[in-house]
Amino acid sequence: MKTVKRFENLVLKTIKENNLIKKNEKVVVAMSGGKDSTTVAYLLKKFGYNVEALHVNLHMGKWSDDNMDNVKKMCEINKIPLHIFSIKTELGNTICYIKQVVGSETNYKQCTICGILRRWLINKKARSLGAKKLATGHNLDDEAQTALMNLFKGNMMLGINSGPKVGMFEDKMFVTRIKPLYFCEEENVREYSKKMNFPVMYQRCPCVIGAYRHEVRNYLNDMEKKNPKIKGNIVKSFTKLLPELRNEVKSKGLKYCKECGEPSRNDICKACQIRMKIK
Length: 279
Ligand SMILES: [Zn+2]
Hints:
- This protein is an alpha/beta fold.
- The chain has one domain: 3-Layer(aba) Sandwich (Rossmann fold).
- The protein contains 11 helices and 8 strands.
- It has helices at residues 2-17, 35-46, 62-77, 87-91, 95-105, 110-128, 140-153, 186-195, 212-226, 230-250, 270-278, and strands at 26-30, 50-57, 82-86, 133-135, 165-166, 176-178, 255-256, 263-264.
- A 6-stranded mixed sheet has the order 3-2-1-4-6-5, sandwiched between helices. Strands 7-8 form a two-stranded antiparallel ribbon.
- Strand 1, helix 2 and strand 2 (50-57) form a beta-alpha-beta unit.
- Helix 7 crosses helix 9 (212-226) and helix 7 packs across helix 10 (230-250).
- Residues 257, 259-260, 262, 269, 271-272 line the site of zinc ion (ZN).
């Protein structure tokens, strides 16, 4: 169980060194049902933090049903209060329908649309639950992929939401997002989750096939065979750039969406731009 202990220590060290959570403040974990967010919920509870969970039902058939069942099981076993929200109730349609309609009318990729809407919804719901922090399951691999994708796009500014703690502004509308697995390799999270027998499915989201991120993931995994430190190196060099990138955005100030009132970098937030297309 040496690897288990080592993994848990790395997560705890990430939390402490980056000052992610204060004792007693309420932290809500966005649980998808996957290994990463399940691991985060379990460990925060184990470390003694004031944890609750939220789950968004995307209504993707059996995939969503099974994930929801797993989240319920996990929260019940570990006595974590769980709040479930439905994308159908919140937005009027299933995620598949929204992606079809919006995807054909914009140049947003399907995973981008889903990501924007989920981020928008979980911020709103975490705030309404009184969360001081919103924890997600992003791991080192996710972050290395994102940094590389932004670099390839020629726009590192897109990465200002990276880093173990996201929340450039002290703002009552924006719940600071934290990533306790920021320095954990995906392979190690998978290994830990399997050792702990967490009730999770290890397949990727059925919609992810063909996604650009998938290609970048494979590329990085190939490169890792030649340089085992590659993911950590990408993330560490990017993290060093972050304060400067953020200062540039900070100087422009934070706006609120004219449609929904949520924090936004534009007059109308991306989620509302999408919502308008399906109305
Ligand atoms: Zn909006």
